[in-house]
Amino acid sequence: MAGAGEAREELLTLVRSLKERVELDRGQGYPLSYLTGCQPAAANSAIEKKQSPGGTTTRACEEPLPVKGTTLEEVRATMDDCHRCSLGQLRHSLVFGEGNPNAELVFVGEAPGADEDAQGRPFVGAAGQLLTKIIEAMGLKREDVYICNILKCRPPENRNPKPDEIAACEPFLMAQLQAIGPKVICALGTFAAQTLLKTEVPISALRGRFHVYQGIPLMPTYHPAYLLRNPSAKKQVWADVQLIMNRLRGEG
Ligand code: URA
């Protein structure tokens, strides 16, 4: 009956995550459109704003994702020479993401830094080297997984991404994840975890258990850049990646 136990545990995890998200979204006044079967709201040229009869502007519910196509190449082609937010003018490279287009595991970070902007590849600086070590400690290679960020362009001085930048970029991340169809997403750091889970709960409280993003199990963990400053947190990241490995093996 291990199968039934696992299914029950998975269902409980789903229900807990949904409850948590509904409570948080309700508290913050976000629309609970996912409860009514609506797709996530779109954001780029396809953001559609509708005038309600009362004159208030509300986000249209619900067009499909704005990104046409189902392959990563098509998603990339749709982004083109993206200038949907002001970061387009400042970047050297658009850092789309890289790795196995059929990866079972996708890592999502915050945004490119200086090294990534210079090379056009995600996680290639000091934090990226630590991420590579984590991946290898999991018995995988960088080429086995897919690595990308919430934002595809570097914010100046590595400042935090702004809401309009996220709104412009997140649909492409969603489309990337849809194209890949991973078994597990690992959100690296506060920013990626809070953005994907639409929550302000601190990473220290989010990590250590699976949440759900667009139907995909999501494990938040500390960002490798945080680990460089706080090496003692490595054991918690190791615990998180063990949970991921178990899940990938069908054991968790
Ligand atoms: N930090 C991130 O979040 N992403 C990168 O690509 C590099 C550093």
Offer a concise description of the structure.
This protein has helices spanning about 1-30, 70-80, 85-90, 115-120, 125-135, 165-180, 190-195, 205, 225-230, 235-250, and strands spanning about 50, 55-60, 100, 105-110, 145-150, 185-190, 210-215, 215-220. By secondary structure, it is α/β, with parallel strands linked by helices.
Strand content: 5-15%
Total beta strand runs: 8
Element string (H = helix, E = strand): HEEHHEEHHEHEHHEEHH
Physical arrangement of strands within the biggest beta sheet: 3-5-4-6-8-7
Number of helices: 10
Distance between the termini: 15 Å
Uncertain regions spanning at least 5 consecutive residues: 24-64
**Residue share in helix:** 40-55%
Indicate the mean pLDDT: 83
Which ligands, by name, code or SMILES, are bound?
A: uracil
The rough form would be described as globular
Radius of gyration: 18 Å
Judged by helices, strands and strand pairing, the structural class is alpha/beta
| Biggest sheet descriptor | 6 strands, mixed
Please tell me about this protein's structure:
The protein is of the alpha/beta class. The protein contains 10 helices and 8 strands. The strands form 2 sheets. It has a 6-stranded mixed beta sheet. The structure holds uracil. Uracil binds at residues 109-113, 116, 122-123, 125, 127-128, 149, 225.
What brief labels describe this structure?
single chain; 252 residues; two-stranded antiparallel ribbon; 10 helices; globular
